[in-house]
Amino acid sequence: MEHKLTYIYFLHNGDNIPFYVGKSINKNLHRSYQHKKTYGKNTLIEVIDTVNTDDWKFWESYWIEQFKQWGFILKNKNNGGGGPIKYSEVSKQLKSTAMKKLWEDNKFYRNWSKSVIYVPTGKIYPTIKSAKEDLLISWPKMYKYLQNQEIFKYN
User: Fold this and answer.
1) Over the stretch 111-125, which tens digit does the pLDDT of each residue have?
2) How large is the angle between the packed helices 32-39 and 89-105, nearest 10 degrees?
């Protein structure tokens, strides 16, 4: 039996200071488009946990409480577990249209499965994700590096 995954993430403004904790069933985290509309274009998203979909409510609540215990001030309206699980057909269509536009407008997402070259060493990585994980680079930094093509180049 295949288990579905849910991704728990936090939002920040490029400073790695969390201000919101959420979840997504989409590993590409296209939800960041919606958050940028709400919180501003500098909003960045970082995955902090990958959990079984049956357990997401517990883990989202856990991470909200953990960040609060660490002293972060979060903008969450509840203590977790309140996000939608099912969408109406109208909501699905609106989301699909928005995601298609984001995909067309954003070269990074279109190319994220392509291989890249780490310029300082010349090492070739089969995907952006593999380079990010091997070199311990956050998604926002990887995005910036690929925009200016000085540290990483598409292969």
Assistant:
1) 666 788 888 899 999
2) 90
* Cα–Cα distance list, 94 to 17, 49, 86, 100 (Å): 31, 27, 14, 10
- The CA distance from 54 to 148, in Å, is 40
Beta carbons of 80 and 20 less than 8 angstroms apart: no
Prediction pTM value: 0.52
Q: State the Cα–Cα distance between residues 68 and 19, nearest whole angstrom.
A: 10
pLDDT per position as a tens digit, 80-105: 776 544 556 776 677 667 656 655 65
Q: Please give the C-alpha separations between residue 64 and each of 1, 5, 47, 52, in angstroms, as whole numbers.
A: 30, 19, 13, 18
